[in-house]
Design brief:
385 residues; alpha+beta; Beta-Lactamase; 4 domains; 5-stranded antiparallel β-sheet; globular
């Protein structure tokens, strides 16, 4: 009897162990399945998120041209909510954009073509459309939309850069060569001699100025534009920078007014030489594009966190469509080109880089009565504890 009880105990114990192992295995197996399901859901969510946040717009439509799905980028490009696109053809969508209509132009599989449009502000936008077949049985097609406006813009900028480089170097050198040739002539009276000497000096100054700008740009882009941060008085600095323009403004009858440039009040932590370059570039722009007899106003103000510097003029102003690109390297507004053909399009780019290195920001505001207001901010100087 004792032996039977012992065997029964061992049998029950064995069953319990088997059940425990089975239960443990089942638990781990089911948990692994749950984890796999969770991983699958996360993967699907990530894939969906990736599709939604892709740089390219994606639109799927059937053989009849009805839109089946689209990602968020396509919604942005097409200017229509996805809910208003699904199940509709382009001609059934209210206020369909030009791009949406272009999306259904006849094209071959994997063919690429470009379309361009102007927005309400006159800005050019370029899109590349690619057709990829998804299901021949259901006739489903994927349209990939790429915004290539930036690439087109950079191509144009490269072309303009070559033109600028040629003009900025070739023109002064030609003038210097011509003036030197005149000076070499015999029997030249003193007035003509001095006039040609001045011509050589002026054109040499242009070459030096532009070469200096190019060196600054190279240093900025290579990370070699050094800074020495120290307590700097923006009131005194602004007056110093403006004093360099006294001859130019006197010659052209331009009035420079100062709005609260008190010293030892507008203090920032910055590199004096770099900040003076930023102020000078803003002022140089204002003087260049202000008509003779016009006015330029320099202002400083501050709040708890920032010092604000601004230059206001009553010149030609800026074309509305050019505003977003004003601080881009080598960019020049069409109005500026008409008034002052000698500009290089690098001054504002240098200002932006200097100010951002100081933790500030740059900006532009149009003046309704004509002219422009350019500003930048710098963090207020605070004594180190």
């Amino acid at each position: 009897m004792a032996n039977f009880a012992y065997v029964l105990f061992i049998f029950v114990l064995l069953i319990a162990v088997v059940l425990f192992v089975f239960a443990r295995f089942s638990f781990l197996f089911l948990r692994r399945i749950d984890e796999k399901e969770e991983e699958g859901k996360l993967l699907q969510e990530r894939q969906k998120e990736m599709v939604e946040n892709m740089v390219e717009g994606l639109v799927v439509h059937d053989a009849d041209g009805k839109i089946l799905s689209a990602n968020g980028t396509a919604e942005t490009f097409l200017g229509t909510p996805i809910a208003d696109l699904k199940g509709k053809k382009s001609n059934e969508v209210n206020n369909a954009s030009q791009l949406l209509r272009a999306l259904f132009m006849p094209m071959k599989d994997r063919e690429e073509f470009e379309v361009s449009f102007k927005n309400e502000r006159g800005q050019d936008f370029f899109y590349q459309i690619i057709q990829v077949p998804l299901s021949k049985e259901r006739g489903e097609v994927l349209k990939i939309i790429r915004d290539v406006s930036r690439a087109k813009y950079l191509d144009r900028m490269k072309s303009e850069y070559v033109t600028i480089m040629s003009h900025k170097f070739f023109t002064p050198l030609t003038n210097i060569k011509w003036a030197a040739g005149v000076l070499a002539a015999k029997d030249l009276d003193e007035q003509k001699k001095q006039g040609n000497i001045k011509n050589i000096i002026d054109n040499a100054d242009k070459l030096i100025e532009f070469t200096s700008h190019l060196l600054n740009i190279t240093e900025i882009e290579e990370g070699l534009f050094g800074y020495k941060f120290e307590k700097t008085d923006m009131g005194e600095l602004t007056k110093s920078a403006a004093s360099n323009y006294s001859k130019e403004i006197t010659r052209r009858g331009i009035t420079i007014s100062y709005n609260d440039l008190r010293e030892n009040f507008y203090l920032v932590k910055g590199d004096r030489n770099r900040l003076e370059t930023a102020v000078a570039n803003y002022l140089d722009n204002a003087v260049k594009y202000t008509s003779d007899g016009g006015t330029v106003e320099l202002s400083l103000k501050k709040d708890k966190d920032n010092v604000w510097f601004s230059v206001k003029d009553n010149g030609v102003g800026v074309s509305p469509e050019s505003a977003p690109d004003l601080f881009t390297k080598f960019f020049r507004d069409k109005r500026a080109k008409e008034v002052h053909t000698e500009g290089s399009g690098v001054g504002l780019f240098i200002v932006k880089n200097i100010i951002e290195k100081h933790g500030g920001k740059v900006g532009y505001d149009p003046i309704k009565t004509g002219g422009s207001l350019f500003y930048f901010t710098l963090p207020v100087y605070k004594e180190e504890k």
